[in-house]
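We modelled the chain as a single entity of 259 amino acids. Its sequence is:
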Amino acid sequence: MAFIDCHFYSDSLGVSASMYVILPQPAQNQIGMASASYGTTKHPTLYLLHGLSDDHTIWMRRTSIERYAAKLGIAVVMPAVNRSFYTDMAAGPKYWTFISEELPAIARSFFPLAEERELNYAAGLSMGGYGAMKLALTHPDRFAAAASLSGSVDISHRALNFPDDFKLIYDDVKTIKGSKNDLFYLAEQVHASKGPKPSLFQCCGTEDFLYEDNIRFRNYCRELGLDLTYEEEPGEHEWGYWDRKIQNVLNWLPLPART
């Protein structure tokens, strides 16, 4: 794999932004590292999102994502969005516009990343799990699959319990429910649509403080009949769990057959 520490200017944010990118490299003699490639000019791409207290470096620092992705032959884009909850903030930058519109266009202008829906996926942990689901449920025409690891998936409930943490993002947290920032609302919209529907993966440890939130979202997706794969096991909100589960996510992704 090639590893790129990329810094660039964002029109959406009005400041310089950062992302880590890993790209497939079909090496033959690299010791201890399996490599794969689809033999295409542009790579299947996973947008891998960080949590509330982290940044774009965290997946590389706390997991072996480079090694896991190498054997599958996919690119991984890991952007920084601060504490934005992947939202155009009421009192801050437009991070939703950045992550959903500007970032994919910029990344594809820099690197050979596929544009086709069936070759684009999103995943994340905690706040990033929310962001990944929000990307795929808002833009099911752009993302074939999304995965949430211990995600903050019931954001209207979470915000009402901690209003001071969210007022800079949403202003009035009572407006979240039933809005474009509510995953339950977005799931219902996808269900009602005649358009494409992304495959969803959700997991959460049974000792995680977000476990009940995840159960509510799981049950709602099942009621709607969405294509949801759900896994749970003993586990807390910590990196040992996420390092294990991101491997499951990568194996679950609906990657095309290699040529």
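As a brief sanity check on the tokenised model: The chain is about 35% helix and 20% strand. The chain has one domain: 2-252.
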